[in-house]
């Protein structure tokens, strides 16, 4: 079987971790010689890819008029609405409890889950899902050549903590993460400087606003990819309190940059092993996460060990690996369909 024609149905191309996934996967498949189209609704505002993309970008309204081997989408509404005769319908589940997702699962030929947690979520609902965990662009996210964190630890200065600051989405747990950092600093007596970053959608609530915190903090809004990698590479600690993530891009990227991670299990089960590659809170509340942050503040050696083990572990999760898994699942299903015995 030769190159595939793959239409990826997306709601927009704006600055979101979920959109990153398909820009990265699309770039891998395009480089392998597949014909990849990112298809978006004609009337959306965010039509320009926020990461470099060498494949095609076009209107979702034109997909039905072309021949495709595969229609792939994470968006239940687009997936149910758009069809192309003969194409394998592939739903890539990326978020637990996404509205109308159950209808998309039922109409799919193949379902992938973007993390171990998502696959478990689907299988509990009797959906036969294949695992296709997310990835990290290791060419972009890696420890800095001159890592200032080592020298800072020896001098005993304030710990630099980093939190994804998407306050407009409660499931991201951004405020809980910030509060947990504050509580851990107060309980241990270890000074902490907190940075929150976000690329907020227009009109987002709380984006860059004042927070009721007793520790020093700052906002970094709309960082470039280079600036984001530098933020990760400068932080001693990254904290995630997500509640319904499929794959936690930010925790994975922080690990790749050699940052110690404290997190919830949401979106991190593939790479965060409590006490080994991260310190993991069972519950997504600030009081629970505080207890996992405290040891990382008190013990620089533990922080360095967790950061090193996390960096090694996340190196297994490249976008090329994710692309391989999805492509293998697609080809197996296409070949099975080609070899099926017609009904008499």
Architecture blueprint of SSEs:
Layout: E1 5-9, H1 17-31, E2 35-40, E3 56-59, E4 70-73, H2 76-81, E5 88-93, H3 101-107, E6 110-113, H4 116-124, E7 129-131, H5 148-155, E8 159-164, H6 174-188, E9 192-198, E10 217-221, H7 225-234, E11 237-240, H8 249-256, E12 260-264, E13 279-281, H9 286-298, H10 300-314, H11 319-338
Parallel strand pairs: 1-2, 1-4, 2-3, 4-5, 5-6, 6-7, 8-9, 8-11, 9-10, 11-12, 12-13
Helix pairs in contact: 1-11, 6-9, 8-10
Task: Write up this protein.
The protein has 344 residues and is an alpha/beta fold. It folds into two domains: 152 residues, Glycogen Phosphorylase B (Rossmann fold, 3-Layer(aba) Sandwich); 167 residues, Glycogen Phosphorylase B (Rossmann fold), CATH 3.40.50.2000. Helices cover 37% and strands 18% of the residues. It is built from eleven helices and 13 strands. It has a seven-stranded parallel β-sheet, with helices on both faces. It has a six-stranded parallel β-sheet with strand order 10-9-8-11-12-13, with helices on both faces. Strand 4, helix 2 and strand 5 form a beta-alpha-beta unit. Helix 1 crosses helix 11, helix 6 crosses helix 9 and helix 8 crosses helix 10. The protein is elongated. The mean pLDDT is 93.
């Amino acid at each position: 079987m030769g190159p595939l024609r793959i239409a990826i149905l997306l709601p927009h191309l704006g600055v979101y971790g979920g959109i990153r996934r398909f820009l990265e996967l699309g770039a891998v498949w395009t480089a392998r010689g597949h014909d990849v189209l990112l298809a978006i609704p004609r009337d959306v505002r965010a039509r320009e890819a926020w990461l470099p993309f060498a494949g095609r970008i076009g209107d979702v309204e034109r997909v039905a008029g072309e021949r495709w081997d595969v229609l792939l989408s994470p968006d239940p509404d687009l997936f149910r609405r758009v069809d192309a005769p003969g194409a394998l319908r592939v739903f890539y589940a990326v978020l637990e409890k996404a509205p109308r997702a159950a209808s998309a699962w039922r109409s799919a030929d193949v379902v992938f889950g973007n993390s171990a947690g998502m696959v478990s979520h689907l299988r509990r609902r009797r959906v036969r899902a294949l695992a296709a965990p997310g990835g990290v662009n290791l060419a972009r996210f890696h420890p800095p050549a001159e890592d200032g964190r080592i020298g800072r630890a020896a001098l005993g200065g304030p710990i630099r903590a980093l939190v994804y600051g998407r306050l407009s989405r409660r499931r991201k747990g951004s405020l809980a993460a910030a509060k947990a950092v504050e509580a851990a600093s107060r309980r241990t007596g270890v000074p902490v400087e907190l940075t929150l970053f976000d690329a907020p959608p227009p009109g987002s609530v709380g984006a860059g606003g004042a927070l009721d915190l007793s520790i020093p903090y700052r906002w970094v809004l709309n960082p470039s990819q280079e600036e984001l990698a530098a933020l990760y590479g400068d932080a001693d600690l990254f904290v995630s309190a997500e509640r319904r993530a499929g794959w936690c891009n930010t925790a994975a990227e922080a690990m790749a940059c050699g940052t110690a991670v404290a997190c919830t299990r949401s979106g991190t089960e593939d790479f965060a092993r409590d006490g080994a590659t991260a310190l993991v809170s069972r519950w997504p509340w600030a009081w629970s996460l505080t207890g996992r942050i405290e040891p990382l503040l008190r013990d620089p050696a533990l922080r360095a060990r967790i950061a090193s083990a996390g960096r090694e572990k996340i190196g297994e999760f490249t976008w090329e690996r994710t692309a391989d898994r999805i492509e293998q699942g697609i080809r197996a299903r296409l070949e099975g369909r080609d070899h099926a015995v017609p009904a008499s």
